Amino acid sequence: MSAIGDQSFGYVRGMPAQPLPPPAERAGMFGWLRANLLFSPANVVLTLICVLLIAWVVPALLRFLVIDAVWSGTGRDACLASPAQPHPGACWAFVRVWSSYFVYGFYPLGERWRVDVFFLTLAFGMAWLLWPAAPRRDVGACYVFIVLPILSFILLHGAPFVGLSVVPTVLWGGILVTVVVATVGMAVSLPLGILLALARRSDLPVVKSVAVAFIEFVRGVPLITVLFMASVMLPLFVPERLSPDKLVRALIGVALFASAYMAEVVRGGLAAVARGQYEAARALGIGYWRMMGLVVLPQALRATLPNIVNTFIGLFKDTTLVFVVGIFDLLRTIEAARADPKWDSPGITLTSYAFAALFYFVCCYGMSRYARGVEARLTRAGRR
Amino acid sequence: MDERADPSTAAAPAAGLAVEISGLHKWYGDFHVLRDINLAVARGERVVICGASGGGKSTLLRCINRLEDWQRGRIVVDGVELTEDPKRILAVRRDVGMVFQQFNLFPHLTVLQNCTLAPIWVRHMPKREAEALAMNYLARVKIPEQADKYPARLSGGQQQRVAIARALCMSPNIMLFDEPTSALDPEMKKEVLDTMVELATDGITMLVVSHEMGFARQVADRVIFMDDGQIVEVNSPEKFFAQPQHERTRAFLKQILH
After folding, report:
1. What distance in Å separates the CA atoms of residue A42 and residue A164, rounded to the nearest whole number?
2. Which residue in chain B is spatially nearest to A302 when comparing CA positions?
3. Does chain B have fewer CB atoms within 10 Å around its N or its C terminus?
4. Are residues A106 and A173 in contact, defined by beta-carbon separation less than 8 angstroms?
5. A280 touching B (Cβ < 8 Å)
6. Coil, helix or strand for A371?
7. B237–chain A nearest CA distance, Å
8. Cβ(B196)–Cβ(B218) under 8 Å?
């Protein structure tokens, strides 16, 4: 082997190599098309199939939802087929007429401003907490987790001592109930889930087994069962006048259910934090709670953020299950409105569900986009 | 900033022993990893612990701030005996800085925040004061310009120097180094070792688990050789390298020094 001399294989650059622009076939629009959509026969076929699928679905959807849709009217006649509109599309006039019911349920007309104020305070709190550049987000967290719940209770339920009449929860409905159930579920499940996850990883055997028992029991039972238990079984054990409000019972059920799932999500995040992080914090003399709050949880929650949002999205859609115990969330109000004989026409059912789908999609997609934005920001921050 | 909030450490005698270990035994399950360790380290003394891997060096070091517990024996650090009592453990840890093989910087915090975290939350130092202190130590390890970067942007040698600065920000009386240069490329070892040599001239008590024999020769007051969970030999660096007493020390040195 030593016979292979330096001259035959050795190559020493005489001049320094200058940086060159990338080759043209990789750049520009055609370069992108070729590289991403048409780089092999199989790829061409896949691209074609996708284009055909889009061409098949999107125009029909657009025609039904927008082009042929009926935007105004006062009754079923507006949405029936007629010589003027042989193929009536979505009956948005129906949604418009019923919209205040979809938002407030049976909340008394004169008190609905209270719900509006609630939505505003909630939106304000969310923006404060979720907008990364907002000032004093620690105060924002206090506002969202302490002030807002009390304020919301006074606003929505009423408090005679400040002049707000009591509105019983049976009158609540629609988006109001959906938002209340979802936000309470999220606001309780994240901190409770974190505590459960910490308990499950604890060295104390009693704490650990209680957490494991709770998590495994709740995860082993469908949410519907939890809700039925909360609304049907609880009154059997607790006297009627002591048993809490139906909505409160459902809220507790949803919150505990979500907490068990959140605990497992957070536990996954905790497992992703290296042991050295705990040791470094301990070696600095940092106690357990500060170590968790300042060093471990920030990393764990970041690592598992997509899963947390995924759980939130699942929770948001699961709120529709409260209808089985007779609570009027958005889906249930839509169901009720759909049966209105005044609007009985072929397109009503499709319109109703399209509206519900749109609402849930916008909310869930919003959460998903926000999470991706945060992830991207964290990745950038880590590379800085 | 040299004031100590803890009465237990403040009560420690001004002169005397920094670390006192007597009759220490530790088992991992059935494995007897530390066997009857007796060691006294004076204040300001610089001790290098070496030995083959698996010999219990790191475990011994980690007992001193009770990252590891033990089954028999006692350890007194700066006059405070380590027991199960969490208050004592925290007091000792606040008095003892530690530098790890894998740096263990907090990746979600900037270099400056890494250094100010414990002073702010443990010593309850005002943020501005803690930052001034941190910048002071970052300047001493010669990377003040990296203060606002995240650890992932730094080279291994820079990260380890930040880790040293982070430990120093708690103004410890004792520093533990657990193989501080083992995870570093050769050209980065030097910058970390230089930092440690400089630190040694300041008179802080140092216990260093390391195979850097040059460092041991240069700064150590005593070199300890551990094998099979026992202290086999304790000697001054000159004697340790020139006339090792024990058979196993000679074998080890032969391997290390080629």
Report:
1. 67
2. B108
3. C
4. yes
5. yes
6. helix
7. 29
8. no
Q: Which residues have C-beta within 8 Å of that of residue B195, sequence separation ≥ 6?
A: B141, B142, B161, B164
What DSSP string describes B172-213? -SEEEEESTTTTS-HHHHHHHHHHHHHHHTTT-EEEEE---H
In whole angstroms, give the CA distance from residue B211 to residue B49. 8
Q: Which two tokens stand for residue B235?
A: 């000697």
Give the C-alpha separation, B98 to A282, whole Å: 10
As a whole-number percent, the residues of chain B with pLDDT over 90 amount to 73
Residue B204 contacts residue B175 (beta carbons within 8 Å): yes
Give B179→chain A minimum CA distance, Å.
14
Chain B contact for A284, CB < 8 A? yes
pLDDT tens sequence across B47-63: 999 988 888 999 999 99
Q: What is the pTM of this model?
A: 0.83
Query: Which one, of A63, A69, A75, lies nearest residue A90 by Cα?
Result: A69
Residue A240 has pLDDT above 80, yes or no: no
d(CA A131, CA A123): 11
Residue whose token pair is 């650890």: B151
Which DSSP letter does residue B148 get?
A: T
CB atoms within 10 A of CB B135: 16
Q: How far apart are CA B158 and CA B11, in angstroms?
A: 36
Strand partners for B176: B98, B207
User: Tokens 């964290």 identify what position?
Assistant: A378
Give the separation between CA B253 and CA B257, rounded to whole angstroms.
6
Cα within 13 Å of Cα(B190), Cβ side: 2
